[in-house]
Write a structure and sequence with these properties.
By secondary structure, the chain is α/β, with parallel strands linked by helices. 29% of the residues lie in helices and 29% in strands. Bound molecules: magnesium ion.
Length: 384
């Protein structure tokens, strides 16, 4: 299933202060919009992210997205509704199965919110799904400083984004919609679509006022964690080895239960170490037949998922391969690119290095390959 996310970031949004549109204002040292993009890009179910911007903010956008691989941003319209429609139209030629429409200001959506949205589409009777929170405060009507009546809060929901829809259904609804809709659920309901309520999360709050930025800073007060990983695999018969997710021709293979990619195994352990979540063997036991010959990218992707589930951001990873042969240099950029792809990180956050041990020890005797890795992440203070 192809799931594409459109992030709407075309608003002027000067209400929040800071002198730039709020989506470009920094929270925890990076623009709000970048947080929103990284959150969605980092979710394993989402296959692509595009951003709708005000073309006048192109320079701000380019600076905010430096190092990320994204499609050309889409020029927004005068209203949010027009901007979303522009985003949807950009997908019309090759529509994904599901489209998520998301506000840049809700930059801190936990993965579980997206998991629940995606799961809602298992029901064929659902055209869309939207995260929402129950209304916990009592609601009263009031006029001229006096209460005049009560409202039953049980049937009321506080609606968040991303809002997810089957692409053809929301595109048709949007094209036919009258102006003035505040969100896609309103447009979907007006078109008679069926929209499921899925669990929202307080952390997905909308950053609007100056005070919200203070709240976002507190929420995104991260503590840094760094951890290392180490792995060794022994040479055996074969004509290639897997290293850092890249197939490298060699006159030997590496022996292991999985594909024996020592680089990715060391890095997986490093990431698991940042959240003290045990080691690769705990998550993917060698006794389990499922992992026989398995491609190690799934181990690394799982570790990244666990970090992001905790609200964590992966800052940087660094792998050192230790071997005499094969020569790593010619494959180094491919390895960086592959790790960046698996972790959904900018390539500037991925380092791959290699060294020999001057023909000393087991790597020097070419009995096997060793790898060590470091990962640095930021975890929310509340969790850390
Ligand atoms: Mg291993």
């Amino acid at each position: 299933m192809r799931i594409h996310a459109i992030i709407v970031a075309a608003g002027a949004g000067l209400r929040a202060g800071g002198g730039v549109p709020k989506q470009y204002r920094a929270v925890a040292r990076q623009p709000l919009l970048r947080h929103a993009v990284e959150r969605l890009l980092g979710h394993s179910a989402i296959t692509g992210v595009s951003v709708v911007i005000n073309p006048e903010c192109r320079a701000l956008y380019d600076a905010a997205m430096a190092g990320l691989t994204l499609p050309e941003p889409i020029a927004g319209g005068a209203t949010r509704q027009e901007s979303v429609l522009a985003g949807l139209e950009s997908l019309a030629a090759d529509p994904p199965d599901i489209v998520l429409v998301h506000d840049a200001a809700r930059a801190f959506v936990p993965d579980a919110v997206i998991d629940a949205l995606v799961a809602a589409f298992a029901d064929d009777d659902v055209d869309g799904a939207c995260p929402a929170l129950p209304q916990v405060d009592s609601l009263r009507r009031g006029e001229e400083g006096r209460f005049s009546g009560s409202v039953d809060r049980d049937a009321l929901w506080r609606v968040q984004t991303p809002q997810a829809f089957r692409t053809p259904a929301i595109l048709a609804a949007h094209r036919a919609a009258a102006p003035g809709a505040t969100d896609e659920v309103a447009i979907a309901l007006a078109a008679g679509l069926r929209v499921a309520i899925t669990p929202g999360d307080e952390r997905a709050f909308k950053v609007t006022e100056p005070a919200d930025f203070a709240k976002a800073e507190v929420m995104t007060t991260f503590s840094s964690r760094a951890a290392s990983g180490f792995d060794v695999h022994k040479f055996g018969p074969g004509d290639h080895v897997w290293l850092c997710g890249v197939k490298v021709p060699h006159d030997h293979g590496l022996i292991g239960h999985s594909d024996a990619d020592a680089g990715l195994h060391a890095l997986t352990d490093a990431l698991l170490g940042t959240i003290a979540a045990g080691d690769i063997g705990d998550h993917f036991p060698p006794s389990d037949e499922r992992w026989r010959g398995a491609a190690s990218d799934q181990f690394l992707a799982h570790a990244a998922h666990l970090v992001r589930e905790r609200g964590g951001l992966i800052d940087h990873v660094d792998v050192t391969l230790i071997c005499e042969r094969p020569k790593v240099g010619p494959h180094r950029e491919a390895m960086r690119a592959r790790i960046a792809e698996i972790l959904r990180l900018g390539i500037d956050r991925v380092s791959v290095k290699a060294t020999t041990t001057e023909k000393l020890g087991f790597t020097g005797r070419q009995e096997g390959i060793a790898a060590q890795a470091m990962a640095s992440v930021r975890l929310p203070e509340q969790d850390a």
